[in-house]
Design brief:
With 496 residues, this protein is an alpha/beta fold. It has helices at 11-15, 54-69, 72-75, 78-94, 96-107, 111-133, 168-181, 196-208, 226-232, 245-255, 280-292, 312-324, 344-360, 394-397, 413-421, 436-445, 480-484, and strands at residues 20-22, 25-27, 34-39, 44-50, 147-155, 158-162, 185-189, 215-217, 238-242, 261-265, 271-274, 304-308, 363-366, 384-387, 404-410, 425-426, 428-432, 450-453, 468-469, 472-473, 486-494. The structure holds NADP nicotinamide-adenine-dinucleotide phosphate (NAP) and magnesium ion.
Amino acid sequence: MAVVEKELLCKDFLTKDKQLLIDGKWVNAESGKTFETRNPATDQVIGKVAEGSKADVDKAVKAARKAVEEGPWRKMSTAQRAKLMYKLADLVEKNADQLAQLETLDNGKPINESKHIDVPQTIETFRYYGGWATKIEGETINANPNMFTYTLREPVGVVGQIIPWNFPMLMAAWKLGPALACGNAIVLKPAEQTPLTALRIGELVLEAGFPEGVVNIITGFGADSAGSAISNHMDIDKVAFTGEDKTGREIVKASVGNLKRVSLELGGKAPNIVFADADIDAAVKGAITGIFFNQGQVCCAGSRLFLEKSIHDEFMSKLLARVAKMQQGPGMDEKTQIGPQVSKDQQDRILSYIDIAKKEGASVACGGDAPAGDLAKGYFVKPTIFTGVNNDMRIAQEEVFGPVLAVIPFNSVEEVAEQANKITYGLSGAVWTSDVKKAHKLASQIKAGTVWVNCVNMLDPAIPFGGYKMSGYGRELGKHSIDLYTNIKSVWVNLG
Ligand code: NAP
Ligand code: MG
Protein backbone atom coordinates (compact mmCIF):
# COMPACT_ATOMS: atom_id res chain seq x y z
CA MET A 1 0.00 0.00 0.00
CA ALA A 2 1.20 3.49 -0.80
CA VAL A 3 0.35 4.87 2.63
CA VAL A 4 2.52 3.36 5.32
CA GLU A 5 1.93 3.40 9.05
CA LYS A 6 4.31 6.28 9.82
CA GLU A 7 2.36 8.50 7.45
CA LEU A 8 -0.89 7.88 9.28
CA LEU A 9 -1.65 11.43 10.41
CA CYS A 10 -4.86 10.52 12.20
CA LYS A 11 -3.33 7.92 14.54
CA ASP A 12 -3.68 10.02 17.71
CA PHE A 13 -7.28 10.77 16.96
CA LEU A 14 -8.03 7.12 16.22
CA THR A 15 -6.57 5.87 19.48
CA LYS A 16 -8.37 8.22 21.85
CA ASP A 17 -11.92 7.83 23.21
CA LYS A 18 -14.53 9.37 20.98
CA GLN A 19 -17.14 11.14 23.10
CA LEU A 20 -20.18 13.30 22.48
CA LEU A 21 -19.85 17.07 22.08
CA ILE A 22 -22.40 18.72 24.35
CA ASP A 23 -22.28 22.32 25.58
CA GLY A 24 -18.67 22.77 24.49
CA LYS A 25 -17.42 19.69 26.36
CA TRP A 26 -16.58 16.11 25.37
CA VAL A 27 -18.66 13.73 27.47
CA ASN A 28 -19.59 10.05 27.59
CA ALA A 29 -23.09 8.94 26.70
CA GLU A 30 -25.45 8.96 29.72
CA SER A 31 -25.83 5.20 29.26
CA GLY A 32 -22.04 4.73 29.17
CA LYS A 33 -22.51 2.70 25.97
CA THR A 34 -20.18 2.78 22.97
CA PHE A 35 -20.22 1.29 19.46
CA GLU A 36 -17.53 0.34 16.96
CA THR A 37 -16.72 1.84 13.60
CA ARG A 38 -14.85 -0.23 11.02
CA ASN A 39 -12.53 0.16 8.08
CA PRO A 40 -14.60 -1.09 5.11
CA ALA A 41 -11.47 -2.22 3.22
CA THR A 42 -10.48 -4.69 5.95
CA ASP A 43 -13.48 -5.10 8.29
CA GLN A 44 -11.15 -4.06 11.14
CA VAL A 45 -12.43 -1.98 14.05
CA ILE A 46 -10.81 1.47 13.90
CA GLY A 47 -12.56 3.25 16.71
CA LYS A 48 -14.96 3.10 19.62
CA VAL A 49 -17.51 5.86 19.73
CA ALA A 50 -20.00 7.01 22.38
CA GLU A 51 -23.52 5.77 21.68
CA GLY A 52 -25.74 8.76 22.29
CA SER A 53 -29.48 8.34 22.81
CA LYS A 54 -32.51 10.35 23.91
CA ALA A 55 -31.03 11.47 27.25
CA ASP A 56 -27.97 12.88 25.46
CA VAL A 57 -30.08 14.56 22.78
CA ASP A 58 -32.11 16.21 25.56
CA LYS A 59 -28.92 17.59 27.13
CA ALA A 60 -27.66 18.80 23.76
CA VAL A 61 -30.95 20.53 22.96
CA LYS A 62 -30.87 22.33 26.33
CA ALA A 63 -27.33 23.51 25.63
CA ALA A 64 -28.26 24.62 22.11
CA ARG A 65 -31.35 26.48 23.35
CA LYS A 66 -29.26 28.32 25.92
CA ALA A 67 -26.63 29.18 23.29
CA VAL A 68 -29.14 30.55 20.84
CA GLU A 69 -31.30 32.46 23.38
CA GLU A 70 -28.86 33.73 25.98
CA GLY A 71 -25.28 32.91 25.06
CA PRO A 72 -22.61 35.07 23.46
CA TRP A 73 -23.60 33.58 20.08
CA ARG A 74 -26.84 35.58 20.12
CA LYS A 75 -25.03 38.81 20.94
CA MET A 76 -22.23 38.43 18.45
CA SER A 77 -21.99 40.69 15.41
CA THR A 78 -22.34 38.94 12.08
CA ALA A 79 -18.73 39.89 11.33
CA GLN A 80 -17.60 38.00 14.44
CA ARG A 81 -19.69 35.04 13.34
CA ALA A 82 -18.08 35.16 9.89
CA LYS A 83 -14.62 35.29 11.45
CA LEU A 84 -15.27 32.11 13.42
CA MET A 85 -16.47 30.37 10.27
CA TYR A 86 -13.38 31.43 8.31
CA LYS A 87 -11.26 30.21 11.21
CA LEU A 88 -13.00 26.84 11.05
CA ALA A 89 -12.35 26.66 7.28
CA ASP A 90 -8.68 27.49 7.90
CA LEU A 91 -8.41 24.77 10.54
CA VAL A 92 -9.94 22.20 8.18
CA GLU A 93 -7.37 23.29 5.59
CA LYS A 94 -4.55 23.00 8.11
CA ASN A 95 -5.66 19.46 8.96
CA ALA A 96 -6.59 18.54 5.38
CA ASP A 97 -4.42 15.44 4.99
CA GLN A 98 -5.37 14.08 8.37
CA LEU A 99 -9.09 14.58 7.69
CA ALA A 100 -8.75 12.96 4.25
CA GLN A 101 -7.17 9.87 5.81
CA LEU A 102 -9.81 9.70 8.51
CA GLU A 103 -12.57 9.90 5.91
CA THR A 104 -11.02 7.20 3.77
CA LEU A 105 -10.43 4.87 6.73
CA ASP A 106 -13.98 5.25 8.02
CA ASN A 107 -15.92 5.36 4.74
CA GLY A 108 -13.64 3.42 2.39
CA LYS A 109 -13.53 6.01 -0.41
CA PRO A 110 -10.30 6.43 -2.44
CA ILE A 111 -7.83 8.74 -0.70
CA ASN A 112 -7.52 10.81 -3.86
CA GLU A 113 -11.22 11.60 -3.67
CA SER A 114 -11.12 12.43 0.04
CA LYS A 115 -8.11 14.70 -0.61
CA HIS A 116 -9.26 16.39 -3.79
CA ILE A 117 -13.04 16.47 -3.39
CA ASP A 118 -14.39 15.93 0.14
CA VAL A 119 -11.85 18.04 2.02
CA PRO A 120 -11.61 21.01 -0.42
CA GLN A 121 -15.39 21.11 -0.82
CA THR A 122 -15.79 21.11 2.96
CA ILE A 123 -13.41 24.07 3.21
CA GLU A 124 -15.15 25.93 0.40
CA THR A 125 -18.56 25.32 1.96
CA PHE A 126 -17.49 26.82 5.30
CA ARG A 127 -15.87 29.79 3.49
CA TYR A 128 -18.87 30.34 1.23
CA TYR A 129 -21.28 30.43 4.19
CA GLY A 130 -18.80 32.45 6.24
CA GLY A 131 -19.30 35.03 3.51
CA TRP A 132 -23.07 34.83 3.88
CA ALA A 133 -23.02 35.52 7.62
CA THR A 134 -22.57 39.26 6.98
CA LYS A 135 -25.02 39.42 4.08
CA ILE A 136 -28.27 38.16 5.56
CA GLU A 137 -30.66 41.08 5.31
CA GLY A 138 -34.27 42.03 5.81
CA GLU A 139 -36.18 44.47 3.61
CA THR A 140 -38.12 47.67 3.98
CA ILE A 141 -41.44 47.52 2.16
CA ASN A 142 -43.32 50.74 1.45
CA ALA A 143 -46.86 49.41 1.29
CA ASN A 144 -48.61 52.10 3.32
CA PRO A 145 -47.46 55.74 3.80
CA ASN A 146 -48.82 55.70 7.39
CA MET A 147 -46.82 52.69 8.30
CA PHE A 148 -43.10 51.94 8.39
CA THR A 149 -42.79 48.26 7.55
CA TYR A 150 -39.70 46.13 7.47
CA THR A 151 -38.69 42.50 7.72
CA LEU A 152 -36.09 40.86 9.93
CA ARG A 153 -34.37 37.56 9.13
CA GLU A 154 -33.91 35.75 12.41
CA PRO A 155 -32.30 32.38 13.11
CA VAL A 156 -34.83 29.54 13.27
CA GLY A 157 -33.35 28.60 16.66
CA VAL A 158 -32.32 25.06 17.57
CA VAL A 159 -31.68 22.94 14.50
CA GLY A 160 -31.39 19.14 14.36
CA GLN A 161 -29.27 17.79 11.51
CA ILE A 162 -29.18 14.10 10.59
CA ILE A 163 -26.67 13.05 7.95
CA PRO A 164 -25.69 9.90 5.99
CA TRP A 165 -22.43 8.03 5.53
CA ASN A 166 -21.60 8.60 1.85
CA PHE A 167 -19.95 12.03 2.25
CA PRO A 168 -19.70 12.17 6.04
CA MET A 169 -17.65 15.35 6.39
CA LEU A 170 -19.04 17.21 3.39
CA MET A 171 -22.63 16.54 4.47
CA ALA A 172 -21.72 17.90 7.91
CA ALA A 173 -20.39 21.06 6.19
CA TRP A 174 -23.49 21.44 3.98
CA LYS A 175 -25.58 21.33 7.14
CA LEU A 176 -23.42 23.27 9.61
CA GLY A 177 -22.33 26.00 7.16
CA PRO A 178 -25.64 27.71 6.44
CA ALA A 179 -27.08 27.00 9.91
CA LEU A 180 -24.11 28.74 11.55
CA ALA A 181 -24.14 31.62 9.06
CA CYS A 182 -27.74 32.30 10.05
CA GLY A 183 -26.95 32.23 13.79
CA ASN A 184 -28.62 28.95 14.80
CA ALA A 185 -27.44 26.39 17.36
CA ILE A 186 -27.12 22.82 16.20
CA VAL A 187 -27.51 19.21 17.29
CA LEU A 188 -25.80 17.11 14.61
CA LYS A 189 -26.09 13.34 14.29
CA PRO A 190 -23.58 11.65 11.96
CA ALA A 191 -24.33 8.22 10.48
CA GLU A 192 -23.39 5.28 12.70
CA GLN A 193 -21.08 3.86 9.99
CA THR A 194 -18.97 7.03 9.66
CA PRO A 195 -18.85 9.13 12.83
CA LEU A 196 -15.15 10.04 12.83
CA THR A 197 -14.72 13.11 10.65
CA ALA A 198 -17.74 14.87 12.17
CA LEU A 199 -16.16 14.38 15.60
CA ARG A 200 -12.83 15.77 14.37
CA ILE A 201 -14.73 18.74 12.92
CA GLY A 202 -16.27 19.13 16.39
CA GLU A 203 -12.76 19.47 17.84
CA LEU A 204 -11.95 22.10 15.21
CA VAL A 205 -15.19 23.96 16.03
CA LEU A 206 -13.97 24.28 19.63
CA GLU A 207 -10.46 25.22 18.50
CA ALA A 208 -11.91 27.93 16.26
CA GLY A 209 -13.58 29.42 19.34
CA PHE A 210 -17.30 28.94 18.72
CA PRO A 211 -19.16 29.52 22.00
CA GLU A 212 -20.29 26.47 23.99
CA GLY A 213 -23.56 24.87 22.91
CA VAL A 214 -23.53 26.30 19.37
CA VAL A 215 -22.47 22.98 17.82
CA ASN A 216 -23.38 19.75 19.61
CA ILE A 217 -22.54 16.38 18.09
CA ILE A 218 -24.35 13.21 19.12
CA THR A 219 -23.00 10.01 17.60
CA GLY A 220 -25.28 7.01 17.80
CA PHE A 221 -28.04 5.19 15.98
CA GLY A 222 -30.99 6.52 14.02
CA ALA A 223 -34.23 4.59 14.48
CA ASP A 224 -35.55 4.46 18.09
CA SER A 225 -32.45 6.21 19.34
CA ALA A 226 -30.51 9.46 18.87
CA GLY A 227 -31.90 10.11 15.36
CA SER A 228 -35.55 9.72 16.27
CA ALA A 229 -34.99 11.63 19.53
CA ILE A 230 -33.94 14.57 17.34
CA SER A 231 -36.79 14.30 14.84
CA ASN A 232 -39.39 13.93 17.63
CA HIS A 233 -37.94 16.59 19.94
CA MET A 234 -40.47 19.22 21.02
CA ASP A 235 -37.79 21.88 21.51
CA ILE A 236 -36.07 21.51 18.14
CA ASP A 237 -37.35 24.11 15.66
CA LYS A 238 -36.13 22.56 12.45
CA VAL A 239 -34.73 19.28 11.20
CA ALA A 240 -32.53 18.98 8.12
CA PHE A 241 -32.14 15.42 6.91
CA THR A 242 -30.15 13.66 4.20
CA GLY A 243 -30.64 9.96 3.66
CA GLU A 244 -33.07 7.40 2.35
CA ASP A 245 -36.62 8.35 1.35
CA LYS A 246 -37.99 5.71 3.75
CA THR A 247 -36.24 7.46 6.65
CA GLY A 248 -37.38 10.83 5.27
CA ARG A 249 -40.99 9.74 5.75
CA GLU A 250 -40.25 8.82 9.38
CA ILE A 251 -38.70 12.24 9.92
CA VAL A 252 -41.78 13.97 8.49
CA LYS A 253 -44.09 11.87 10.70
CA ALA A 254 -41.98 12.66 13.76
CA SER A 255 -42.11 16.38 12.98
CA VAL A 256 -45.87 16.68 13.56
CA GLY A 257 -45.57 16.89 17.37
CA ASN A 258 -44.35 20.48 17.39
CA LEU A 259 -44.76 21.05 13.62
CA LYS A 260 -41.05 21.67 13.29
CA ARG A 261 -39.77 22.71 9.88
CA VAL A 262 -38.25 19.93 7.81
CA SER A 263 -35.96 19.89 4.78
CA LEU A 264 -35.15 16.63 3.05
CA GLU A 265 -32.40 15.54 0.66
CA LEU A 266 -33.29 12.00 -0.31
CA GLY A 267 -32.35 9.43 -2.91
CA GLY A 268 -32.23 9.40 -6.69
CA LYS A 269 -32.12 7.23 -9.79
CA ALA A 270 -30.73 9.71 -12.25
CA PRO A 271 -31.01 9.39 -16.03
CA ASN A 272 -27.74 9.92 -17.91
CA ILE A 273 -28.79 10.45 -21.53
CA VAL A 274 -26.32 10.13 -24.40
CA PHE A 275 -27.32 11.16 -27.94
CA ALA A 276 -25.55 9.98 -31.07
CA ASP A 277 -24.33 13.54 -31.73
CA ALA A 278 -22.44 13.73 -28.40
CA ASP A 279 -18.67 13.73 -27.88
CA ILE A 280 -18.66 9.99 -27.23
CA ASP A 281 -15.32 9.79 -25.43
CA ALA A 282 -16.33 12.55 -23.04
CA ALA A 283 -19.68 10.86 -22.48
CA VAL A 284 -17.98 7.53 -21.74
CA LYS A 285 -15.85 9.21 -19.08
CA GLY A 286 -18.96 10.96 -17.76
CA ALA A 287 -20.87 7.68 -17.55
CA ILE A 288 -18.03 6.19 -15.47
CA THR A 289 -17.84 9.14 -13.09
CA GLY A 290 -21.62 9.20 -12.99
CA ILE A 291 -21.96 5.69 -11.62
CA PHE A 292 -18.62 4.67 -10.11
CA PHE A 293 -17.61 7.84 -8.24
CA ASN A 294 -17.72 7.09 -4.50
CA GLN A 295 -18.50 3.42 -5.35
CA GLY A 296 -21.90 4.51 -6.66
CA GLN A 297 -22.92 5.69 -3.19
CA VAL A 298 -24.04 9.03 -4.49
CA CYS A 299 -27.61 10.28 -4.35
CA CYS A 300 -27.21 11.91 -7.78
CA ALA A 301 -25.43 8.90 -9.36
CA GLY A 302 -26.21 8.49 -13.06
CA SER A 303 -27.49 4.96 -12.49
CA ARG A 304 -29.72 4.77 -15.59
CA LEU A 305 -27.65 5.19 -18.74
CA PHE A 306 -29.90 5.91 -21.74
CA LEU A 307 -28.01 5.32 -25.00
CA GLU A 308 -29.33 6.32 -28.43
CA LYS A 309 -29.62 3.02 -30.29
CA SER A 310 -27.32 3.93 -33.18
CA ILE A 311 -24.32 4.36 -30.83
CA HIS A 312 -25.17 1.65 -28.31
CA ASP A 313 -22.58 -0.93 -29.40
CA GLU A 314 -19.72 1.52 -30.01
CA PHE A 315 -20.40 3.21 -26.67
CA MET A 316 -20.57 -0.07 -24.77
CA SER A 317 -17.27 -1.33 -26.12
CA LYS A 318 -15.50 1.91 -25.17
CA LEU A 319 -17.17 1.94 -21.76
CA LEU A 320 -16.28 -1.68 -20.98
CA ALA A 321 -12.67 -1.17 -22.09
CA ARG A 322 -12.28 1.72 -19.65
CA VAL A 323 -14.02 -0.02 -16.76
CA ALA A 324 -11.76 -3.06 -17.22
CA LYS A 325 -8.80 -0.78 -16.45
CA MET A 326 -10.25 0.67 -13.26
CA GLN A 327 -8.14 -0.08 -10.22
CA GLN A 328 -10.16 -1.52 -7.34
CA GLY A 329 -8.58 -1.72 -3.91
CA PRO A 330 -8.35 -0.26 -0.39
CA GLY A 331 -9.11 3.46 -0.30
CA MET A 332 -5.80 4.22 1.43
CA ASP A 333 -3.86 3.02 -1.63
CA GLU A 334 -3.10 6.07 -3.80
CA LYS A 335 -3.69 4.01 -6.95
CA THR A 336 -7.21 2.99 -6.01
CA GLN A 337 -10.00 4.35 -8.18
CA ILE A 338 -12.81 2.30 -6.72
CA GLY A 339 -12.86 1.32 -3.06
CA PRO A 340 -15.11 -0.84 -0.88
CA GLN A 341 -18.76 -0.11 -0.08
CA VAL A 342 -19.28 1.50 3.30
CA SER A 343 -20.55 -1.58 5.16
CA LYS A 344 -21.29 -5.28 4.95
CA ASP A 345 -25.01 -4.39 4.93
CA GLN A 346 -24.55 -2.19 1.85
CA GLN A 347 -22.42 -4.83 0.13
CA ASP A 348 -25.16 -7.44 0.76
CA ARG A 349 -27.89 -5.07 -0.41
CA ILE A 350 -26.05 -4.32 -3.65
CA LEU A 351 -25.31 -7.99 -4.33
CA SER A 352 -28.99 -8.77 -3.79
CA TYR A 353 -29.92 -6.10 -6.37
CA ILE A 354 -27.46 -7.70 -8.78
CA ASP A 355 -29.31 -11.02 -8.30
CA ILE A 356 -32.64 -9.31 -8.84
CA ALA A 357 -31.41 -7.81 -12.14
CA LYS A 358 -30.12 -11.19 -13.31
CA LYS A 359 -33.49 -12.78 -12.48
CA GLU A 360 -35.27 -9.96 -14.33
CA GLY A 361 -33.38 -10.99 -17.46
CA ALA A 362 -30.78 -8.19 -17.67
CA SER A 363 -27.35 -9.25 -19.01
CA VAL A 364 -24.14 -8.78 -17.04
CA ALA A 365 -21.74 -6.87 -19.30
CA CYS A 366 -19.09 -6.67 -16.56
CA GLY A 367 -18.74 -7.34 -12.83
CA GLY A 368 -21.78 -8.92 -11.24
CA ASP A 369 -20.26 -10.14 -7.98
CA ALA A 370 -17.78 -9.42 -5.19
CA PRO A 371 -14.05 -9.74 -5.92
CA ALA A 372 -12.19 -12.74 -4.51
CA GLY A 373 -8.60 -12.88 -3.18
CA ASP A 374 -7.17 -10.07 -1.06
CA LEU A 375 -10.23 -7.91 -1.39
CA ALA A 376 -12.63 -10.57 -0.09
CA LYS A 377 -12.11 -9.43 3.52
CA GLY A 378 -13.47 -5.97 2.71
CA TYR A 379 -16.93 -4.92 1.52
CA PHE A 380 -16.08 -4.74 -2.18
CA VAL A 381 -18.42 -5.10 -5.16
CA LYS A 382 -17.00 -5.21 -8.68
CA PRO A 383 -18.04 -2.34 -10.95
CA THR A 384 -21.11 -3.83 -12.61
CA ILE A 385 -22.93 -2.94 -15.82
CA PHE A 386 -26.22 -4.44 -16.98
CA THR A 387 -27.35 -4.22 -20.60
CA GLY A 388 -30.70 -5.31 -21.99
CA VAL A 389 -32.47 -3.37 -19.25
CA ASN A 390 -35.85 -1.77 -19.70
CA ASN A 391 -36.97 1.18 -17.63
CA ASP A 392 -39.69 -0.85 -15.84
CA MET A 393 -37.32 -3.35 -14.26
CA ARG A 394 -36.54 -2.98 -10.55
CA ILE A 395 -32.86 -2.47 -11.43
CA ALA A 396 -33.96 0.63 -13.37
CA GLN A 397 -36.49 1.91 -10.83
CA GLU A 398 -34.99 1.33 -7.37
CA GLU A 399 -31.99 3.03 -5.88
CA VAL A 400 -29.16 0.51 -5.51
CA PHE A 401 -26.66 3.00 -4.06
CA GLY A 402 -23.73 1.02 -5.39
CA PRO A 403 -21.50 0.59 -8.46
CA VAL A 404 -24.27 -0.86 -10.61
CA LEU A 405 -25.28 0.69 -13.93
CA ALA A 406 -28.44 -0.10 -15.91
CA VAL A 407 -28.09 0.59 -19.65
CA ILE A 408 -31.30 1.32 -21.56
CA PRO A 409 -31.37 1.98 -25.34
CA PHE A 410 -33.71 4.62 -26.84
CA ASN A 411 -34.81 5.89 -30.27
CA SER A 412 -36.04 9.47 -29.95
CA VAL A 413 -35.95 12.60 -27.80
CA GLU A 414 -39.63 12.18 -26.93
CA GLU A 415 -39.17 8.56 -25.89
CA VAL A 416 -36.15 9.25 -23.70
CA ALA A 417 -37.73 12.30 -22.06
CA GLU A 418 -40.76 10.21 -21.09
CA GLN A 419 -38.65 7.33 -19.78
CA ALA A 420 -36.25 9.58 -17.90
CA ASN A 421 -39.20 11.01 -15.98
CA LYS A 422 -40.90 7.67 -15.41
CA ILE A 423 -39.44 7.32 -11.93
CA THR A 424 -40.47 8.34 -8.43
CA TYR A 425 -37.21 10.25 -7.88
CA GLY A 426 -36.12 13.61 -9.29
CA LEU A 427 -32.76 14.66 -7.90
CA SER A 428 -30.67 15.04 -11.04
CA GLY A 429 -30.16 14.11 -14.67
CA ALA A 430 -27.53 14.53 -17.39
CA VAL A 431 -27.68 15.04 -21.15
CA TRP A 432 -24.82 14.54 -23.62
CA THR A 433 -25.31 16.18 -27.03
CA SER A 434 -23.72 18.76 -29.33
CA ASP A 435 -27.16 20.14 -30.24
CA VAL A 436 -27.86 23.21 -28.11
CA LYS A 437 -31.60 23.09 -28.77
CA LYS A 438 -31.89 19.47 -27.71
CA ALA A 439 -29.84 20.18 -24.58
CA HIS A 440 -31.99 23.07 -23.38
CA LYS A 441 -35.22 21.35 -24.30
CA LEU A 442 -34.35 18.31 -22.22
CA ALA A 443 -32.99 20.47 -19.41
CA SER A 444 -36.45 21.93 -19.05
CA GLN A 445 -38.28 18.62 -19.57
CA ILE A 446 -36.37 16.56 -16.99
CA LYS A 447 -38.20 16.69 -13.67
CA ALA A 448 -35.20 17.01 -11.37
CA GLY A 449 -33.49 19.58 -9.17
CA THR A 450 -30.23 19.52 -11.18
CA VAL A 451 -29.55 18.90 -14.88
CA TRP A 452 -25.99 18.60 -16.19
CA VAL A 453 -25.30 19.14 -19.89
CA ASN A 454 -22.09 17.52 -21.18
CA CYS A 455 -20.87 17.04 -17.60
CA VAL A 456 -21.89 15.14 -14.47
CA ASN A 457 -21.70 15.44 -10.68
CA MET A 458 -20.73 19.12 -10.77
CA LEU A 459 -21.35 20.70 -7.37
CA ASP A 460 -20.45 24.07 -5.91
CA PRO A 461 -21.46 25.64 -2.60
CA ALA A 462 -22.97 28.54 -4.57
CA ILE A 463 -25.27 26.38 -6.71
CA PRO A 464 -28.54 25.10 -5.18
CA PHE A 465 -29.00 21.34 -4.85
CA GLY A 466 -32.10 19.33 -3.98
CA GLY A 467 -34.93 17.22 -5.28
CA TYR A 468 -38.21 17.10 -7.14
CA LYS A 469 -40.75 14.39 -6.34
CA MET A 470 -39.61 11.75 -3.83
CA SER A 471 -36.05 13.08 -3.79
CA GLY A 472 -37.11 15.53 -1.11
CA TYR A 473 -37.84 19.21 -0.62
CA GLY A 474 -35.95 22.38 0.19
CA ARG A 475 -32.77 23.46 -1.53
CA GLU A 476 -29.37 23.25 0.11
CA LEU A 477 -26.31 25.26 -0.97
CA GLY A 478 -26.39 28.68 -2.55
CA LYS A 479 -28.51 31.49 -1.15
CA HIS A 480 -31.49 29.13 -0.85
CA SER A 481 -30.08 27.51 2.27
CA ILE A 482 -30.53 30.84 4.00
CA ASP A 483 -34.30 30.36 3.62
CA LEU A 484 -34.04 26.98 5.33
CA TYR A 485 -32.30 28.41 8.38
CA THR A 486 -34.04 31.75 8.96
CA ASN A 487 -37.48 32.96 9.96
CA ILE A 488 -38.84 36.11 8.37
CA LYS A 489 -40.50 38.53 10.75
CA SER A 490 -42.56 41.52 9.53
CA VAL A 491 -42.51 44.61 11.76
CA TRP A 492 -45.21 47.32 11.41
CA VAL A 493 -44.59 50.74 12.95
CA ASN A 494 -47.59 53.08 13.03
CA LEU A 495 -46.49 56.53 11.85
CA GLY A 496 -49.97 58.06 12.11
P1 NAP B 1 -30.49 6.47 6.18
O1 NAP B 1 -30.59 5.08 6.69
O2 NAP B 1 -31.74 7.17 5.85
O3 NAP B 1 -29.64 7.23 7.27
C1 NAP B 1 -29.37 8.59 7.22
C2 NAP B 1 -29.29 9.12 8.63
O4 NAP B 1 -30.56 9.02 9.26
C3 NAP B 1 -28.32 8.36 9.52
O5 NAP B 1 -27.69 9.27 10.39
C4 NAP B 1 -29.24 7.43 10.26
O6 NAP B 1 -28.73 6.95 11.47
C5 NAP B 1 -30.44 8.31 10.48
N1 NAP B 1 -31.68 7.59 10.74
C6 NAP B 1 -32.03 6.35 10.35
N2 NAP B 1 -33.29 6.06 10.75
C7 NAP B 1 -33.74 7.14 11.42
C8 NAP B 1 -34.97 7.47 12.07
N3 NAP B 1 -36.00 6.62 12.11
N4 NAP B 1 -35.10 8.68 12.63
C9 NAP B 1 -34.09 9.58 12.58
N5 NAP B 1 -32.90 9.33 12.00
C10 NAP B 1 -32.72 8.13 11.42
O7 NAP B 1 -29.62 6.58 4.89
P2 NAP B 1 -28.20 5.96 4.64
O8 NAP B 1 -28.41 4.50 4.37
O9 NAP B 1 -27.29 6.36 5.72
O10 NAP B 1 -27.77 6.73 3.27
C11 NAP B 1 -28.09 6.28 2.02
C12 NAP B 1 -29.32 6.98 1.48
O11 NAP B 1 -29.21 8.39 1.60
C13 NAP B 1 -29.52 6.72 0.01
O12 NAP B 1 -30.85 6.42 -0.26
C14 NAP B 1 -29.13 8.05 -0.66
O13 NAP B 1 -29.70 8.31 -1.88
C15 NAP B 1 -29.50 9.05 0.34
N6 NAP B 1 -28.68 10.26 0.21
C16 NAP B 1 -29.22 11.39 -0.33
C17 NAP B 1 -28.46 12.54 -0.49
C18 NAP B 1 -29.02 13.81 -1.06
O14 NAP B 1 -28.35 14.82 -1.03
N7 NAP B 1 -30.22 13.82 -1.57
C19 NAP B 1 -27.15 12.55 -0.05
C20 NAP B 1 -26.63 11.39 0.50
C21 NAP B 1 -27.40 10.26 0.62
P3 NAP B 1 -27.94 5.56 11.45
O15 NAP B 1 -26.67 5.84 10.72
O16 NAP B 1 -27.71 5.20 12.85
O17 NAP B 1 -28.82 4.58 10.73
MG1 MG C 1 -16.64 3.00 9.29
